[in-house]
Design brief:
2 copies of one chain form a homodimer. By secondary structure, the first copy, chain A, is α/β, with parallel strands linked by helices. Chain A contains 8 helices and 8 strands. In chain A, strands 1, 2, 3, 4, 5 and 6 form a 6-stranded parallel beta sheet that branches. Chain A has a two-stranded antiparallel sheet with strand order 7-8. In chain A, helix 1 links the parallel strand 1 and strand 2. Chain A is globular and about 55 Å long. The model of chain A has no long low-confidence stretch (mean pLDDT 93). Chains A, B: This is NAD(P)H-dependent oxidoreductase.
Chain lengths: 267, 267
């Protein structure tokens, strides 16, 4: 497979979305970046501090704005023709350079804060993150997108406890709630994710618990290079061929989203 | 149960998020509102046209901005004390009035556009959409939140086809992808949803197909009052009691999110 944007070995991008610097998330961001900086070149995107505008709109097309056609495809044209907005191009350069993406956010309404969702909407354009065809004419997506060669660690804080967000928990299990990110965004673009790094009961941690969580995070980050990343199934392996649904002989009878995890394959 | 904000019978709010007025979504919005206006009083929130700011930030707290504490709880205090931003209060008034919510958006990266996610982050504050305790001391959520008494119809367009977004489809089935909205946002706040109204292959429809889709939508809207809404399980029914996970005797062995649907109960 072709690597569209070869990452720079040892470079990480820490993508962070929380409005309050004095929050638990603020501490996680600062101490996490410090820890990682001991072993890597760390770029950061502190979306609130940058005042990042998350609204994908007509002006994202640059001089192509107003052109009739499919908006996602036009964004791909704007990418190719160097028409994307300066803030988007700056983010794309950081993503292109990083081989490790850290994506840190508080769980708001069972998903990402809007400022982070809009970073995805605006930055991961056609042409940059997806859109090519492979040698067989299949679109390069789900395991082989424009960002192939990268891995991602998602760090998420949640006010709820681990039971509410666990298997059969009332709020839905977090792996399924974040499937649109791990699979629909990252894997679609070629990025494999590590197991989620989850901090539950995040609103009620006392000082000792915060210190424990920060130690746990530092240990995780220090060893991340040795961790296996989870793989979903590859579109090109033929497991969906013909119907775009998973072949009946694979994970038979099941309808949960874990059927899309590759069996026993880790990167 | 207490109805915190009694809706006005016959009033609907059409919440809409697409940047291009000349898009398929633009036509659906205009013709849908026209159709509904024949039978109801229709309020609208055209988020792009309004220039809605989707970034929840410190200034959302009004005079409480800078106060130490949990951000979600402070938003609840800001609501109670009339400190929320004017644009947020205007949206809350519309939601309070509506007994039917129409939520229309294109599927971007397997979720809502950021401008719509941020409407949820900013508008559905504690105090307004959730946060009370019932007479037994349980939080009023999942079936009994601040917006109880309302129903919602989600209209979503997708570039992909129905197989990719169906059961075992490569992109994940759409009901599961949108569970954070139907269950985590709406049901959490007390709102029951109708079956999703999905328009697939939305980028490739010719004029005839567009006309067919618009007819199908008008028929759906005209009969919506007679449709049963889907119910998830109620927190207060004891089906999660003790563990915050679904009792082992209900939907035994399953881990898909449909275990949270109430069996055979429709509103």
């Amino acid at each position: 497979m072709t690597i569209s944007h070869p990452p720079t070995p040892g470079t990480a991008l820490w993508l962070y979305a929380h409005p309050r610097p004095d929050s638990l998330n603020g501490r996680i961001f600062r101490e996490g970046v410090d820890t990682l900086a001991g072993q890597r070149n760390v770029l950061t995107s502190d979306l609130y501090a940058q005042g990042f505008d998350p609204v994908l709109r007509e002006s994202d097309l640059g001089q192509l704005s107003g052109t009739h056609g499919n908006f996602a495809e036009l964004l791909g044209d704007a990418y190719t023709q160097g028409q994307l907005a300066l803030d988007v191009r700056a983010e794309q350069r950081k993503v292109a350079e990083a081989e490790l993406l850290i994506i840190q956010f508080p769980l708001w309404w069972y998903g990402m804060p809007a400022i982070l969702k809009g970073w995805i909407d605006r930055v991961l354009t056609a042409g940059f993150a997806f859109g090519d065809l492979d040698e067989t004419g299949l679109p390069r997506r789900y395991g082989d997108g424009g960002l192939v060669g990268r891995k991602a660690l998602i760090i998420v804080t949640a006010g709820e406890d681990g039971r509410s967000l666990g298997s059969r928990g009332i709020s839905g299990d977090l792996d399924t709630l974040l499937f649109p990110l791990t699979h629909g965004v990252l894997w679609y673009s070629g990025v494999a994710s590590y197991d989620l790094h989850v901090i539950t009961d995040a609103d009620g941690l006392d000082d000792d618990a915060v210190a424990r969580e920060l130690r746990r995070l530092r240990r995780r980050l220090s060893g991340i290079a040795e961790e296996p990343a989870r793989l979903f199934r590859n579109l090109r392996d033929g497991e969906y061929r013909g119907t775009r649904a998973l072949r009946a002989d694979l994970a038979p009878g099941r309808t949960d989203l874990n059927v899309h995890l590759a069996d026993d394959r880790r990167l």
